[in-house]
Amino acid sequence: MGVIAVTASGRAAARRLVAAWPGEAEVVSGERPADALRAAFTRHSAVVSFLAVGATVRVLAPLLAGKHTDPPVVCVDESLRFAVAVLGGHHGGNDLAHRVAAVLGCTPVVTTASDTAAATPLDSYGADLGLTVADPAPLASVGTAVLSGDPVRLEGAAGWPLPPLPENVAPDVPYPAAVIRVTDHVAAARGGVPTVVYRPPSLVVGVGSARGVAAEEVGAVVEAALASAGLAREAVRAMATLDLKSAEPGILAAAAERGWPLLSYPAAELAAVDVPNPSEVVRAEVGTPSVAEAAALRAATDLGSAAELVAPKRKSANATAAVARLRPRGRLAVVGLGPGARDLVPPRALDELRRASVVVGLDQYVAQIRDLLRPGTRVLASGLGREEERARTAVREARAGAAVALVGSGDAGVYAMASPALDFAGSDIDVIGVPGITAAVAAASLLGAPLGHDHAYISLSDLHTPWEAIERRIRAAAEGDFTVCLYNPRSRRRDWQLARALDLLAEHRPPETPVGHVRNASRDGERTVLSTLAEMRAGGADAVDMFTVVLVGSSASRVVGGRFVTPRGYRWRE
Ligand code: SAH
């Protein structure tokens, strides 16, 4: 990106951006500031201007060509209070304003409609899945209809794990003011209602050929196969063939000309694919009765979760082509929300919450993050004890093609929802894990540095684990001299387990061993207590409940300056 600054403070801030993003940001200079700005705009993929918005707009106005081609422009005011996304908001400008604001410590200013309304922006709708806009012209009027609450019909989106759209956008709208259509068909445009067409990356073209085939011939039979079924070439995601043909210059060139990756498979794998038009002649030649149909189906199955043939094999003198459509893979994000405080929720988790069309979780966790969800997000919350049901629901929704976020507190993989969900999930959905700050780590940072050396997590809940197994692990951790983090330490119904665990640990630890416990770390009513093993066994443990995590030191743990420290044991200390 190009950075333009004139004043001393602007130049100092420009240097901070360049230092923050080496190799990405570069100060552009010119005879006059306007020259520098014009040069940056024409040569760089993004512009940060330390000139006033008015000055920047006046200089750039004659150069503006269109939001899809112009580089985004962000202006920062002289006193470094605001980073304003001036141009190309949805094409990187809004993100850039946020990034600049983060480096300079100022406030990002974003004015594009869908960002202020927090609805999914249409120009990048499904872009991360590979959806492309067939024609950007109707985007503005359809976008206005979506944001105004007009009835908008959504066609063909089922099965694609797309982000949510507001409730006025639905599949069954009889008299829509606008239409959003996801299709790989080159359907004739119907006049009247403004319609945005998205091309999903749903098709795979399988090809076969004789040796020495010309690229033009491969291209022609491919285009004919697509046209025969009325399919859009923008929806083609890849070309596929037999390994033996993967270096065939005509095939390579035909794929490269269209910007499609070429995938290839061994004959034995293609021979195993069920196809409508097998040929014994082909089998005798190359070892599989089908190349084009089998390769298309096989690749589409790999890229999606299942496949169907939508254009059967077509032949020319030296080439064959067939087209398969894939069933998209659903998306399950397993998202840890951290111990409670909003600023301990990782940015990636926030992105995934806003990316999801369905959010599944315990009601109290979902309540914590409801304000972050985009309009139209379906929320499936349930109460304590319904873990298995939530895990099944999340997987079932993802399998049906939704973008699901399954949320849990702390880290969603630590005594939480990730493992039951992944126990049900097959390889037919994509799973994205977002790590969270688990209770032990949140508590440790409040207590000092108790986890500086080896430590073990043990849950004292014997609801799903026999107590003998838990006790065996406590004994092992005691004997192994680990610092021990006790989750689910005590509840009204499970009131003796913590005392028992402390007794077992005391067999291998001195009475003055530090024990820290934190209740509601980073939540309202947070309470941090630093105690000792002896005190805990003499009644201190009564203050512990199911909102508390207990950390018992190893024999090396100490209290230093009122803080719980487990030495790392570096030699340089000696
Ligand atoms: N997935 C969660 C743990 C769920 S088990 C995580 O990674 O943190 C529930 C137990 O975690 C509670 O009984 C308590 O021991 C601990 N816990 C969770 N959040 C806590 C918090 N904010 N403060 C203290 N302990 C917490």
What does this structure look like?
With 574 residues, the chain is an alpha/beta fold. It contains 19 helices and 29 strands. The strands form six sheets. It has a six-stranded mixed sheet, with helices on both faces. Helix 7 (215-228) crosses helix 8 (249-258), helix 14 crosses helix 15 and helix 17 (467-479) packs parallel to helix 18. The radius of gyration is 30 Å and the shape is globular. S-adenosyl-L-homocysteine binds at residues 339-340, 408-411, 414-416, 438-439, 443, 487-489, 518-523, 546-549.
How are the SSEs placed, and which strands pair?
Elements (H helix, E strand, L loop, with lengths): L1 E3 L3 H13 L5 E2 L5 H11 L3 E3 L3 H8 L12 E4 L5 E6 L5 H12 L2 E3 L3 H4 L15 E2 L5 H10 L3 E4 L13 E2 L7 E5 L12 E5 L3 E7 L5 H14 L7 E7 L6 H10 L3 E4 L1 H5 L8 H7 L5 H12 L2 E10 L3 E9 L2 E7 L10 H9 L2 E5 H7 L8 E5 L4 H13 L3 E6 L9 H7 L4 E6 L4 H9 E2 L5 E5 L7 H13 L3 E5 L9 H10 L7 E6 L7 E6 H5 L10 E5 L5 E3 L2 E3 L9
Parallel strand pairs: 1-2, 1-3, 3-4, 5-6, 8-9, 8-10, 10-11, 12-13, 13-14, 17-20, 17-21, 18-19, 18-20, 22-29, 23-24
Antiparallel strand pairs: 4-5, 7-11, 12-16, 15-16, 24-27, 25-26, 25-27, 28-29
Helix pairs in contact: 7-8, 14-15, 17-18
This protein binds S-adenosyl-L-homocysteine.
In short:
The chain is of the alpha/beta class and 574 residues long. 31% of the residues lie in helices and 24% in strands.
Low-confidence stretches: none
How much strand content do the residues show?
A: 15-25%
Bound small-molecule species: S-adenosyl-L-homocysteine
Average pLDDT, to the nearest integer? 94
Strand runs, count? 29
The major β-sheet equals: 6 strands, mixed
Which strands sit side by side, in order, in the main sheet? 2-1-3-4-5-6
Give the C-alpha Rg.
Answer: 30 Å
Based on secondary structure, the structural category is: alpha/beta
Tally of alpha and pi helices: 19
Span between termini: 50 Å
Oligomer: single chain
